């Protein structure tokens, strides 16, 4: 069968496409985690206080329908999180972004319009109708600082100098503006998750563990988030796949969940952190030893090839390097 040669450009394009798909899947996982954490009124209360300096009572907020049909019924718009503040018809609209969306202002404007259109009190009033207050927020966990406009920017160079209008302006909570220290010290599920998002290597991870230990161990918010994160460990911390094989990762997940559930919410330190750190360190050391071993072996092969080029007798090579005859024959086949 004739071998098909794929052009280099096509291979590169294919790799880029696969990377894009994987990134998209990871972003969906992160989105679902953020929604699951902030879907709890107690977590939303903590989030609004810690990152937006707004104090809201947990008893005053409730989850609201996030699925709205447009007037023409051409499509359904689903928001990430929508909360209604009881008794005063105001809303908190929260969108999570793993990447920067430069049309976010338009999206948030559309969402705000849909919330207003579907607000029962506003729909039933005709004269002097007042729209409900909507507080739109974007939580960005993008690697790059958020630099998209927070309101619709209009072109002011019009013939009759019409004054530009102010469209709904959204608020931004950008993960890049907060240190790991600040995030861990919030002692919340979303704070812990955001600190995980800041991890770049094992040193960062160890730092978070030590920080939690000094603060007295994981609390109920952090343990709930930990259990969610464990389910999707390789997506939340992609660097972990470099130190753990697939089978080891699955065993780790089972072990952590079992220990957390048995430890209960009174545990001094979440076993997630201590167990994971220990296993990672073991695997890093194992990888280091294997790397050194491979390096030594590679050096020995290079010496043997040099001896073969100098026409050194097989018996001398075997006696000097300790290689067996079969391995020597294989090296002879590849020395050129």
Helix content: 40-55%
Question: DSSP helix count?
Answer: 13
Structural class: alpha/beta
Strand order of the largest sheet: 1-4-5-6-7
Average pLDDT taken over every residue: 78
Output the radius of gyration.
Answer: 29 Å
Distance between the termini: 27 Å
Major sheet characteristics: 5 strands, mixed
Beta-sheet strand percentage? 5-15%
- The total count of strands amounts to 7
Low-confidence stretches: 265-270
Q: Could you spell the SSE succession in H and E letters?
A: HHEEEEEHHEEHHHHHHHHH
Number of domains: 3
Describe the structure.
- This protein is of the alpha/beta class and 336 residues long.
- The chain has three domains: 156 residues, no CATH class; 116 residues; 39 residues.
- It contains 13 helices and seven strands.
- Strands 1-4-5-6-7 form a five-stranded mixed beta sheet, with helices on both faces. Strands 2-3 form a two-stranded antiparallel sheet.
- A hairpin with a 4-residue loop joins strand 4 and strand 5.
- The chain is elongated, with a radius of gyration of 29 Å.
Question: Quick recap of the structure?
Answer:
It is built from 13 helices and seven strands.
Question: What descriptors fit this protein?
Answer:
336 residues, alpha/beta, 3 domains, 5-stranded mixed β-sheet, two-stranded antiparallel ribbon, 13 helices, 10% strand, elongated
């Amino acid at each position: 069968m004739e071998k098909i040669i794929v052009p280099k450009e096509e291979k590169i394009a294919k790799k880029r496409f696969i990377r894009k798909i994987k990134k998209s899947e990871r972003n969906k996982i992160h989105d679902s985690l953020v929604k699951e954490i902030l879907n709890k009124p107690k977590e939303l209360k903590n989030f609004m206080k810690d990152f937006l300096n707004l104090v809201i009572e947990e008893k005053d907020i409730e989850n609201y329908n996030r699925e709205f049909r447009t007037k023409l019924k051409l499509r359904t718009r689903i928001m990430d999180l929508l909360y209604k503040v009881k008794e005063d018809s105001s809303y908190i609209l929260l969108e999570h972004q793993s990447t920067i969306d430069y049309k976010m202002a338009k999206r948030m404007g559309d969402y705000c319009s849909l919330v207003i259109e579907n607000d029962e009190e506003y729909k039933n009033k005709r004269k002097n109708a007042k729209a409900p207050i909507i507080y739109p927020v974007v939580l960005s966990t993008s690697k790059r600082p958020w630099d998209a406009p927070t309101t619709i920017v209009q072109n002011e160079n019009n013939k009759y100098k019409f004054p530009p209008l102010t469209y709904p302006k959204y608020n931004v909570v950008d993960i890049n503006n907060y240190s790991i220290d600040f995030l861990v010290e919030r002692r919340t599920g979303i704070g812990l998750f955001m600190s995980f998002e800041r991890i770049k290597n094992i040193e960062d991870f160890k730092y978070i563990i030590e920080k939690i230990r000094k603060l007295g161990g994981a609390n109920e918010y952090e343990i709930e988030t930990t259990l969610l994160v464990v389910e999707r460990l390789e997506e939340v911390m992609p660097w972990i796949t470099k130190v753990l094989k697939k089978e080891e990762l699955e065993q780790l997940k089972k072990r952590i969940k079992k220990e957390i559930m048995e430890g209960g919410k009174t545990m001094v330190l979440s076993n997630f952190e201590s167990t994971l750190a220990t296993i990672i360190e073991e695997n890093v050391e194992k990888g280091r030893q294997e790397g050194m071993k491979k390096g030594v072996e590679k050096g020995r092969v290079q010496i043997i090839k040099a001896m073969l080029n100098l026409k050194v007798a097989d018996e001398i090579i075997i006696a000097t390097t300790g290689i067996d005859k079969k391995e020597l024959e294989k090296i002879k086949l590849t020395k050129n």
